Hints:
2 copies of one chain form a homodimer.
Chain A: H1 5-22, E1 29-30, H2 34-44, E2 48-49, E3 52-53, E4 66-75, E5 79-86, E6 88-93, E7 96-97, E8 104-107, E9 110-119, E10 126-130, E11 141-143, E12 165-166, E13 168-169, E14 186-189, E15 193-197, E16 200-218, E17 222-229, H3 232-236, E18 244-249, E19 253-257, E20 262-272, E21 279-285, E22 294-297, H4 300-316, H5 333-344, H6 350-361, H7 374-391, H8 394-412, E23 443-444, H9 445-464, H10 468-489, E24 490-491, E25 496-497, E26 500-501, H11 512-520, H12 526-537, H13 548-560, H14 564-580, H15 619-627, E27 630-634, E28 639-642, E29 651-658, E30 661-668, E31 671-676, E32 680-686, E33 692-693, E34 698-702, E35 705-711, E36 717-720
Parallel strand pairs in A: 28-32
Antiparallel strand pairs in A: 1-13, 2-3, 4-9, 4-11, 5-8, 5-10, 6-7, 6-9, 11-12, 14-21, 15-16, 16-19, 16-20, 16-21, 17-18, 17-20, 22-29, 23-26, 24-25, 27-28, 29-30, 30-31, 31-36, 32-35, 33-36, 34-35
Amino acid sequence: MKWTFRKLLLLVILLQATVQAFSANATWIWYPGDYELWLGNNLQNRRTERGTFFPPFWKMDSHYSLVEFSTDLNLAEQETITICAEGRYNVKLDGKFYPGMPDNVLLPAGKHSLNIKVFCLDRVPALYVQGKTVATGSQWKATFEDKEWIDASGRTSGKSGTIYRHAGSWNFNTSSALPSAYKLPVSPMAAVSMEPKGKGMLVDFGKETMGFPLFQGVEGKGWIRIYYGESAEEATDTLHCETTDQIQVTAPVAKLQVNDSKAYRYLYIETDGGATFKQISMLYEFAPVTERGSFRCSDTLLNRIWDVSDYTLHLTTREFFIDGIKRDRWVWSGDAYQSYLMNYYLFFDSPTVERTIQLLRGKDPVTSHINTIMDYTFYWFLSLSDYYLYTGDKTFIEQLYPRMESMMQFVLSRRNSRGLLEGLPGDWVFIDWTDKEMSKQGEVSFEQLLYCRSLETMAECAGLVGKPADQARYEALAASVKHILLNEFWDQSRQAFVHNKVNGQSDGVVTRYTNMFAIFFNYLTDKQKEAVKTHVILNDSIMKISTPYMRFYELEAMCTMGETDYVLNEMRHYWGGMLKAGATSFWEKYNPEETGVQHLAMYQRPYGKSLCHAWGASPVYLLGKYFLGVKPVAPGYSRFEIRPELGDLNWLKGSVPTPNGQIKVYANARTIKVSASEGEGYLYFKAAKKPKASTGMIEKMASGDFRLLVKGDGQEIVVTR
Amino acid sequence: MKWTFRKLLLLVILLQATVQAFSANATWIWYPGDYELWLGNNLQNRRTERGTFFPPFWKMDSHYSLVEFSTDLNLAEQETITICAEGRYNVKLDGKFYPGMPDNVLLPAGKHSLNIKVFCLDRVPALYVQGKTVATGSQWKATFEDKEWIDASGRTSGKSGTIYRHAGSWNFNTSSALPSAYKLPVSPMAAVSMEPKGKGMLVDFGKETMGFPLFQGVEGKGWIRIYYGESAEEATDTLHCETTDQIQVTAPVAKLQVNDSKAYRYLYIETDGGATFKQISMLYEFAPVTERGSFRCSDTLLNRIWDVSDYTLHLTTREFFIDGIKRDRWVWSGDAYQSYLMNYYLFFDSPTVERTIQLLRGKDPVTSHINTIMDYTFYWFLSLSDYYLYTGDKTFIEQLYPRMESMMQFVLSRRNSRGLLEGLPGDWVFIDWTDKEMSKQGEVSFEQLLYCRSLETMAECAGLVGKPADQARYEALAASVKHILLNEFWDQSRQAFVHNKVNGQSDGVVTRYTNMFAIFFNYLTDKQKEAVKTHVILNDSIMKISTPYMRFYELEAMCTMGETDYVLNEMRHYWGGMLKAGATSFWEKYNPEETGVQHLAMYQRPYGKSLCHAWGASPVYLLGKYFLGVKPVAPGYSRFEIRPELGDLNWLKGSVPTPNGQIKVYANARTIKVSASEGEGYLYFKAAKKPKASTGMIEKMASGDFRLLVKGDGQEIVVTR
């Protein structure tokens, strides 16, 4: 036999196939969304307030306890699979049981149908199957009711009405990595200072952190009392600090770790009754996500703001995106929505986005707005549109579409006679925390605006999953809400949207929310946008925003209008203000007019405020999207644009993660350098004179406006202007 | 001070009140229906087939993991309550936390609101609170979402959209009687014979039973292999018996009990590898229900039929009413429906009825017919009407009404263009097991009949819960279905309902089901009923029924037409036939034309048939309702009637349970004796000459027909005729 190139090639292909065959990689699977609910139930019920269990006040949905997983086989040769499950299970091939609860079974060659049914009450029924070519993964089907009855003849029924979904999975890729055993990783961390104080000791970890206090060399009998503080004031105020732990010592222990992780910078520790310890340190607990985005510029304050934003988001990114690490440690849709957006510019960790979206939605029937908050339902819809744009993951939209529909059905069932939404009993119309009272009565324009955008999202997703009739229906609904909004809530004399209408009447109050969102939703003409800028955003008589939450959107509106200097200065003033006040992570609320311990109080409690709140981290998003200027314009960055904006900076540089790569940007007044590792898109820039590019052809768009195609080949392009 | 009678009376009343105050009896509470689901998930997932886990193929719903229990207090003086919970909990008084997870708290005097929130994933969140006057019970409210947010001012929200329900409870009346620890009681039982057989030993317990085989004096190393048999043939056929257990012995054990209870009369036991045991007996496992009904008559065969029916129903009454004790050990709505009716004449155990009804219904959303079977959905509706009539428990209907509505909404959403129901993909149109093929295609008249009755039940319950608009809507729907049924499915030439219509056409086939049900549903004129009797029931060319399941209704139809001799003879022949064939409990199916081991086979498996099936026990119902002749005519036996029917018997006697008492009946040709301990009703009887009564006034209704008012005072009335 002569080894021709062709034969060799065939051999190589054959060998590759064999290697692949041996390396089918299994992962643990479950009913989609169920593990997320289970994990979320555990997370959200870990909150304590001064040692008292403090759970959420909305419905906790549960996993299906009995799930059937199935796959179709077409095996070239027989193979043995090993089976691991969380729960009791059975295994059927072509409708016939293998005996018992087998650890492994031999699958015959040929076409077959493999079904494994798992039952588990306390954990999520989960399955891990590994064979030579057969392996559990998201291509497996899952259902909570197979409806496979056996008729009198002993045959299973043919016609099934069963709805199968793709199995859910994450990264539990070995048989021993049980989903139910998942814990966030920890690493040891030492305190930066300790000093005696009162009857105890004040320990400072140097910055806001989260984890498990760890005592070493514990002896004697008595109590160790731990008072946690995001501030030294809070830790040492043993009667009012928000979280405490009281540990009884009855015998010597080499290492004593507190049960649940807590948020703090300071620990104030008292012992009594004879308990002593030799050392105190902690185990820092964190989400294993990677900082894939970066930002640096010529302004060190902005760099510090970016770094603290990064840290804030990392701390509040846990099993899910939570609001704050001291409290509520719950998953709130409005808060999470901002975390998603920041995440796209920092970690690009899609599994955490998916988990959070699924947990927030829960299961049918819908009995309440998400977190009971009307606006939070709408952010949930909006998050799906963003998720698709940034990740390009259509499968997730397809999997979730039925639950999007039922969620929207709930919304539609609550419309008033004008087709608009008012807060009904049980609906929390939140919008924002404000220093002065703000009406939530009647038709609040902000809610209609978000509702309209949600309908547009439904239309978009309906189109995506191939439901043109749904798409048309949602488009028509959106158009009718938008029409009312633009015609009945836009006040010509005030050149702004009014805040609300009660019984069809407005009292003329204008707030910022609807107006600023309408800018970046692009619901307004350019003239209207300018009017909003002047009459609302830059108008000090309109109630100011005192949360980073809504400052996020206010600055986003200004960004989209090109007000980069304004935005940078606001950042320096507002986020810089928190740093000046001692922040090591960004806060739930910040009113620059307050001072000292006023900054710590909220909800009528002296330390009620969360000093590490995800919504404080928006500079990560704003700097990435509007200054590095990177954003997707087609799903999953298949097309993108890069519009670097220096504002008043001498230079800036950084990278923005894309699903499987990154876009790098450097800009100063003369030079722009960009590279992208996937997709393709245009670099847009201004230049006074004719610019030059190291590669590619610069197109002139208008006087002083240019663009240049950037291919996703990782190659750096240098533009000189 | 002079002790007048009046003063003494006041003192007694005062003392009574004090005693009551100290004896507030707590019981464990939970979200209504949730414990039932949890218990049912455990029960229904215990089935094995030859050691292989064999779960149901319909949706298993789960409990809410986070539940808030609350009650309003009005305390004359302060009191301490002790708190026990299954799960993690917190305690709030007037919206303020007590610290930690307190075992007991002091409640101040006055009006207060007490809230306790419990979280538990693996068991049902449950609560037990006992104070001097405060005690958990069904008067407590429960919700799975309190929607109680805290606004910026630290206040909880005022306007709630929360739906509270009455807490669920059963009989867990001490703090240590944890609902999650519930087990059916057991009692030791010895075998009646043991004999060596083949390589092992055949053990006979003398009759069908259920429980845990118990080995004593186990020694050596090796295996004990247990083959269960409802028949000796099954037990000794080690390759085909339906259930087995294989126990590995590795060290001496004084007592070795099998893990899960099984159904059997015979055990065939083999040991190998050197394992030995000294004794084999069992622990009989049973539901702690009381035989409150009784029946005796002059025919010993009928007495034995009643006794075996009683035993069959007791065996199949477990945590819930299941179908059969060998298999499926699942809760099937059509089977349970008959158990409820029998139960009203035997145990009158309402908690088991309530549990079963709740488990069958599950939670929203409805994704399938109950047990996937269309007819089974309808029996579920019918069961509520019966439940109310027999128990008078309106609260249960009120609690369940929302889930009745959503179940009916599912049905309505599946109507065809004529407003009728056909089997859609995933729907099992069952009707009955038949020996010949029976069409399930198109509009099956039996399904329309049950659908119509279900709509009538919805109307009745809507009226009961004060929803007249719903009532009118369901009445109109029922009337329209009934109109089609009577006009389009009644075949004038055949004087019977046809079986079905496919594309509007009937092939003229007549089956018994629709026809016999229409008699006792009273949908037919007397003339039509007589025609059905002649042309269908007594017509041997119409496919015969070979399950006790449908014989139940066939005989009920004949009972309502006064065909008592026919019914008694059929009982003797059919149920007597099973006894003659060796039955010690009644079977899933019985075809008198079969012989020997043919009786054991079903589903193409030699021992597939269940020899202890609830639906075999109908004589308990028929003899109580139509021969003792006792039934309620107003809810909860507030009004009843007694129509003793001797048929060909010399005498009969017995008692029928009522919610809080019983009705006793004795009759022979000359004398009737009755007493009732609650409610009131008429005794109806025939007499050739003028009858006499020991008390009360006999009214003549028509020639030979008389009635006499019976008061619920327990006094026996003797009528001589």
